[in-house]
Structures are given as structure tokens and as C-alpha cells.
Amino acid sequence: TVVGIPFARQCVKLANFSFWPFGRSIVKDPSATKLGVIGAILWIIPGVLMAIGYVLSGALLCLTIIGIPFGVQSIKMAGLALQPFGKRVVSSNDMANFYAGTA
């Protein structure tokens, strides 16, 4: 539906970041509109549930040496799952260009 399109875009953002999280960071999107506040309010319940799941899985992954990088990425995913509106996923190589305003 037309109402669900903004939420679908956030779900695609989460899926894209979870597919390959290494070498990417989450930054505030300077082009975000104020209408994202309405979406953020409606996102609270599923966002909290997803964030709790990511934090728990991140803590379990950090119990082993091999799982520590995956646990750190899972905790980064918790931050994005909690508040995806107004955020953008950029590669670490493009961070300087993003903050310079050229990305």
C-alpha cells in the first residue's frame, strides 16, 4: 500500500545492511524529512523487538573468539533496527566524501 512504502524502504535498508555489514557504517541522513518522525513513532514496537533480538544474538556471538566480529555487527544492527528513519548506510570508503557533502 501507499502507507506501507516508507516502512518497506526501511526494511530493505535493514536487509541490505544485514546481508553484508562489514565495511559499512550508519550515519544520519542530511536529506531526511521531518515526516520521518511519524514513521519512527509507528516503528517503535517492531523496532524494539528487533533491537532486543539483535542485542541478544550479538551477546551470544561475542562468547566465542570467532563470533566477536559478528557480534559487533549485530549490535550495530540493533541501533539501526531501533531507529531506521533518518539514517543512511554508507561504505567506510565513502565516509569522508559523505561528510564533505559530495556523496
What is this entry, summarized?
The chain has helices at residues 5-19, 36-61, 68-82, 95-100, and strands at residues 24-28, 87-91.
List keywords for this structure.
single chain, 103 residues, mainly alpha, two-stranded antiparallel sheet, 4 helices, 60% helix, 10% strand
Strand order of the largest sheet: 1-2
H-E string? HEHHEH
The mean pLDDT is 83
The biggest beta sheet reads: 2 strands, antiparallel
Strand and helix map with partners:
Elements: H1 5-19, E1 24-28, H2 36-61, H3 68-82, E2 87-91, H4 95-100
Antiparallel strand pairs: 1-2
Your description of this structure?
The chain is mainly alpha-helical. It has four helices and two strands. Strands 1-2 form a two-stranded antiparallel sheet. Helix 2 (36-61) packs antiparallel against helix 3 (68-82). The longest helix has 26 residues, at 36-61. It is globular and about 45 Å long.
